[in-house]
Design goal:
Elements: E1 8-19, E2 22-34, E3 39-43, H1 50-57, E4 65-70, E5 73-74, H2 80-90, E6 91-95, H3 106-111, H4 121-134, H5 150-162, E7 168-172, H6 180-197, E8 200-204, H7 208-211, E9 216-221, E10 224-230, H8 233-238
Parallel strand pairs: 3-8, 3-9, 6-7, 7-8
Antiparallel strand pairs: 1-2, 1-4, 4-5, 9-10
Helix pairs in contact: 4-5, 5-6
């Protein structure tokens, strides 16, 4: 695809949920482009639709109407089974509470997404070790989550997100459960993944300092985009 074409294109997006006889409009006629290797932060009050938008772009949910294109795939037209296959190869997920399996080592947690792909054990080992090396945890690969700090657990989560080499990483409050130092390290790692590996990152956050580390900040209010600003260099330096 032409390099000038955005990686993510959202057009006339609506998302509604039913609660009894009531219809709740979460996203309304939303349009958005996200470029290749862009680090985008989504902000807004609780209930504004941030996580709903993130889930739609990541193929975890389907819109009520509208179009979502990621790469050259119109994911808004995919079935649930097609979305599941697409997510495995094209999207990496980073969560606030890590969602690591406590009985598995860091290596085994990172390996999990690869078990869905037709890879040999040797191929899986190479990709897992590469991912753990990228996040600086090669010396912790045989430790279980309970033996790791919060920041280290989130690094395992990021290694799991990138182990399939997806072009898109979606992060939902990735620093929300971390202390200031660990949060700074995780944001620096996300910046490195964008700058050195060309990953496109969409991050939901309530923290203005975390958002300032992104290249662009979008604000949602009642399901609509209300502000589009570039991240402040001053805030980035102080984050």
């Amino acid at each position: 695809m032409p390099p000038e074409q955005p990686l993510v294109q959202v057009r006339n997006l609506y998302k509604s949920f039913s609660r009894g006889s009531e219809t709740i409009d979460v996203l309304q006629d939303l349009n958005l482009d996200v470029g290749h290797a862009e680090f985008l932060a989504l902000m807004g009050p609780s209930g504004s639709g941030k996580t709903t938008l993130l889930n739609l772009i990541a193929g975890l949910d389907q819109p009520t109407s509208g179009t979502i294109i990621v790469g050259d795939q119109v994911i808004s037209e995919m079935s649930e089974s097609e979305l599941a296959r697409w997510r495995t190869r094209h999207v990496g997920f980073v969560f606030q509470f890590y969602y690591l399996l406590p009985v598995l080592t860091a290596y085994e947690n990172v390996e999990l997404p690869l078990l869905l792909l037709p890879l040999s054990r040797q191929q899986r080992r190479k990709q897992v070790e590469t991912a753990l090396d990228l996040v600086g945890l090669s010396n912790r690969m045989h430790h279980r989550p309970g033996q790791l700090s919060g920041g280290q657990q989130q690094r395992v989560g990021i290694a799991r997100a990138i182990v399939t080499d997806p072009e898109l990483i979606v992060a939902d409050e990735p620093t929300g459960d971390l202390d200031t130092r660990s949060a700074h390290e995780i944001l620096t790692l996300l910046e490195t993944l964008r700058a050195q590996l060309g990953k496109t990152i969409i991050m939901v956050t309530h923290d203005p300092k975390a958002a300032a580390r992104a290249q662009r900040v979008l604000h949602l209010e009642k399901g609509q985009l209300v502000l589009d600003t570039a991240a402040s260099p001053l805030l980035t330096a102080e984050a």
